[in-house]
Automatic annotation (TrEMBL), chains A, B:
Any coiled-coil regions, as ranges: none
Organism of this sequence: Streptomyces actuosus
Domain Enoyl reductase (ER): 16-332
SMART domains noted in UniProt: PKS_ER
Keyword annotations from UniProtKB, A to Z: Oxidoreductase
The protein's name: NADP-dependent oxidoreductase
InterPro entries linked to this entry: ADH-like_C (IPR013149), ADH_N_2 (IPR041694), ER (IPR020843), GroES-like_sf (IPR011032), MDR_fam (IPR045010), NAD(P)-bd_dom_sf (IPR036291)
Top-level taxon of the source organism: Bacteria
Length: 335, 335
């Protein structure tokens, strides 16, 4: 083990877009694992739109990251030394270990992963939180039924790309929304979406009318803003709007844009419902087995966008999410 | 029967507030009932916030009232002549007979009411659409449970006053929102609400924090706008927001104000759901029996605001709803 552990800590609460000055890059001494603990070297760090919300000091489903704290992040570490019975050197372990090069853990919230089944990074994506979010959001909150029409925004992202493919695997017609021709082509040509709308260049309302002529049964929303409003105009009777996220609003310095067309919930006897994936922890293993089986059968293709670098690249890499520069799950691989 | 039937017809689609010129006051010859029909004289005309939506030419749960058509309205008529086996002279009948003095009907959608159980006007309020709306909105859509905290906006209105009292009858803590000291005092002193917030003079968020310290389990929304946004900040886990109406937005000439705080649905694992009372028609009789029993037991007090006049007073009386001038169910009684 080297003498220092490079870390990214929160220096200030961002206003609007996160700026370089909002982060502190620092080096701490590397801890020894000590009794009942293991030490590990970080291999992959997850970058998630939800991180933006964790930086704000307001009540949410998790406490905000404190000023001066190591930035919260899911990651996969490789165990280097251990006094913990469940983790051995060479094991790969996923957990919320933060943006840092080295980790010492008592094992709480940590889970050993099987790298013979899937590459380590997949446990941050299709078999990690984004996959679980897509699965429970669509099937439990969205109460998806065979043959329904599903629209997914942020469809080329970590959650959206899995959500759309789960809906296909469940026998639904799936329309994706994404930005740019590359992502759109990937959704239809590689991932098997039935139709795709490029929200940057197309008239979203008009295209929704075309691609969901009988209305949207489940709208899985990752973006909020104008796209949510457009989808609300096209709901089928008894539609379900799954509120997974609102990436278009996270960097606002003005209030969030509320969905002006929410009264269509009344006209269409529809519901809009939010959820937090952690509530489904007891069922993660079952979901992961089902997603694994779909991956094995070629029904779900895993899209990962791997940036290779150091923890110092975390801030710039995080910005890619909000500029729409990633295709699939964005991870930072430590070189 | 007199020779002419005074009617109010829609002359133009209103922009913003409905103006006198948007209506046409006219007199038509009175029809004979003819075979299989009955004729009746209008006694009470219902005035409902939803009427504003019926004037707009946009897709909704009912087609818009056509330009030149008699204004759609629920009313109670007294049968004057009949060739219909189910309706006899002297009977009181409720139906969507429109804003006119005399009616000829084949009986479809008409229901004879028992004026020995309740005065005729009550069949436009507590035992009519507003009562049904409160009942199914709260119990079916809101899935109200004993002991929960319920917040009702537009609480002094036709639907809100019944919704709040049903929630009380079901063992809930009930907080009402209304405008002005008279309405607020009525809600707590007469109708038994646990607390009331005067949205015109009080800080709604602060008062919600005070009166619903453990959060709102069911928010029954009749108003939309800023009050909906305030309620969203105070949701309990797994809360239900019942979208019944949005009277604050109906006269907008700008887009509806969407709920900026809708992401609290995610944080609180909550849902927002709309409904249209007509979907529950098969269960109206059961709901009316239960509401009647509560009225009989003194657990629901019926508040009606009766304006006496002619059909020519309909436009001015309708305006009272949007100025918040009615207490309880607003009806126009024809002198």
């Amino acid at each position: 083990m080297p003498a220092t552990n490079r870390q990214i800590r929160l220096a200030a609460r961002p206003v609007g877009e996160v700026k370089p000055d909002d982060w502190q890059h620092c080096s701490e001494p590397v801890d020894e694992p000590g009794p009942g603990r293991f030490a590990g070297r970080t291999r992959f760090i997850s970058l998630d739109p939800a991180m933006r919300g964790w930086l704000d000091d307001r009540p949410s489903y998790l406490p905000p990251v404190g000023i001066g704290d190591v930035m919260r992040a899911g990651s996969v570490v490789e165990v280097t030394a251990s006094d913990h019975p469940d983790f051995q050197p060479g094991d790969h372990v996923v957990g919320t270990f933060g943006v840092q090069e080295y980790v010492v853990s008592d094992g709480r919230g940590a889970m050993k992963v099987d790298t013979s089944l899937a590459p380590p990074s997949t446990y941050l994506g299709a078999l990690g939180m984004p996959g679980m979010t897509a699965y429970f959001g669509l099937l439990d909150v969205g109460a998806l039924k065979d043959g329904e029409t599903v629209v997914v925004s942020g469809a080329a992202g970590a959650v959206g790309s899995i959500a759309g493919q789960i809906a296909k695997a469940k026998g639904c017609r799936v329309v994706g929304l994404a930005g740019g021709p590359e992502k759109c082509a990937m959704l239809t040509d590689e991932l098997g979406f039935d139709a795709v709308i490029d929200y940057r260049t197309e008239d979203v309302r008009k295209e929704l009318r075309r691609h969901a002529p009988d209305g949207i049964d489940v709208y899985f929303d990752n973006v909020g803003g104008d796209i949510l409003d457009a989808a609300l105009t096209r709901l089928a009777m008894h539609a379900r709007v799954v509120v997974c996220g609102a990436i278009s609003q996270y960097n606002n310095t003005t209030p969030v844009k509320g969905p002006s067309n929410y009264l269509s919930l009344l006209v269409r006897r529809a519901r809009m419902e939010g959820f937090v994936v952690f509530d489904y922890a007891e069922r993660y293993a079952q979901a992961a087995r089902e997603i694994s089986a779909w991956i094995g059968a070629g029904r779900i293709k895993v899209k990962e966008h791997v940036v290779t670098g150091s923890v110092d690249d975390f801030p710039e890499t995080l910005g890619m999410l909000f500029r729409g520069e990633n295709v699939g799950k964005l991870v930072l691989e430590l070189a």
